[in-house]
């Protein structure tokens, strides 16, 4: 990825960076390093992925010029804490984007950790656990982050956008900011002890907070009002039958969909 470098804060914390012109998946490479005993922190970035993927095993289009990056971390505590890293990653990503563009009113976080631009998906996060070989080796996690910098994929089940709407920045310039913002949010998180403070910051950027929301689960759809996220990061929906805590699911925000104009059709 052209121009990719670590930010000054990340460099001062001993974070490492490896850059590839092409790779199967930055997450897969980071997992291989972790399973081989690398404790991180290590960023793997690539100009292009041949097997990029997102949540729930879905493919992730890795268009040249977009940001494809994964961070390997370990030693943060028990595996049960790992899902909280998704909120740290989402907060770091939107923080880097706001610093780069100033578009604070156009960027938002969609639970659990997507970044939206004008209500359309701009960035996503994929967390994967790593258990190194060897007795007593600390549990690790790979935090994969993809940002549509120059183009967004077509033919998706949801609207997507890219940074060309805001005039940049390049993937390399954005990564330097992201690496520093990640160190900042990980320090705030502090192995889970700072999740309450991180949660409050996350809620300050939450898309659809207080409005209608749908959580589409494998066997049902839960509809109601987006009340908050709880102390464990679960989505809390106020429904007609009471409060529901959602741990995972596809989230739909009707107000955002209604606000998007219909695409022009040829005559």
UniProtKB/TrEMBL annotation:
Signal peptide: none annotated. Transmembrane segments: none annotated. Its EC number is 6.3.4.15. It catalyses: biotin + L-lysyl-[protein] + ATP = N(6)-biotinyl-L-lysyl-[protein] + AMP + diphosphate + H(+). Keywords: Biotin, Ligase. GO terms for cellular component: cytoplasm. InterPro entries: aa-tRNA-synth_II/BPL/LPL, Biotin_CoA_COase_ligase, BPL_C, BPL_LPL_catalytic. One of its GO terms (molecular function) is biotin--[biotin carboxyl-carrier protein] ligase activity. It is an enzyme of class 6 (ligase). Residues 24-148 form the BPL/LPL catalytic domain. Residues 209-253 form the Biotin protein ligase C-terminal domain. NCBIfam families: birA_ligase. This is biotin--[biotin carboxyl-carrier protein] ligase. The lineage of its organism: Bacteria, Pseudomonadati, Pseudomonadota, Alphaproteobacteria, Hyphomicrobiales.
């Amino acid at each position: 990825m052209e121009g990719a470098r670590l930010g000054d804060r990340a460099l001062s914390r001993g974070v490492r960076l490896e850059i590839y012109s092409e790779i199967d998946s930055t997450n897969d490479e980071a997992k291989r390093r972790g399973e081989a005993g690398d404790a991180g922190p290590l960023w793997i970035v690539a100009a292009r992925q041949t097997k990029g993927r997102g949540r729930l095993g879905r493919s992730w289009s890795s268009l040249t010029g977009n940001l494809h990056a994964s961070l390997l971390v370990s030693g943060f505590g028990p595996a049960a804490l790992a899902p909280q890293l998704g909120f740290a990653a989402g907060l770091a990503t939107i923080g880097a984007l706001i610093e780069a563009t100033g578009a604070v009113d156009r960027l938002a976080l969609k639970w659990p950790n997507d970044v939206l631009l004008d209500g359309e998906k701009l960035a996503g996060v994929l967390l994967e656990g790593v258990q190194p070989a060897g007795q007593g080796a600390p549990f690790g996690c790979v935090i994969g982050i993809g940002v549509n910098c120059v183009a967004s994929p077509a033919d998706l089940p949801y609207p997507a956008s890219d940074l060309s709407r805001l005039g940049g920045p390049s993937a390399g310039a954005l990564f330097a900011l992201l690496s520093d913002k990640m160190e900042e949010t990980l320090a705030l998180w502090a192995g889970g002890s700072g999740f309450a403070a991180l949660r409050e910051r996350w809620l300050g950027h939450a898309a659809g907070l207080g409005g209608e929301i749908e959580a589409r689960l494998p066997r049902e759809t839960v509809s109601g009002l987006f009340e908050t996220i709880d102390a464990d990061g679960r989505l809390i929906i106020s429904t007609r039958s009471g409060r529901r805590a959602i741990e995972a699911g596809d989230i739909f925000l009707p107000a955002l969909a209604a606000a998007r104009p219909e695409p022009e059709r040829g005559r």
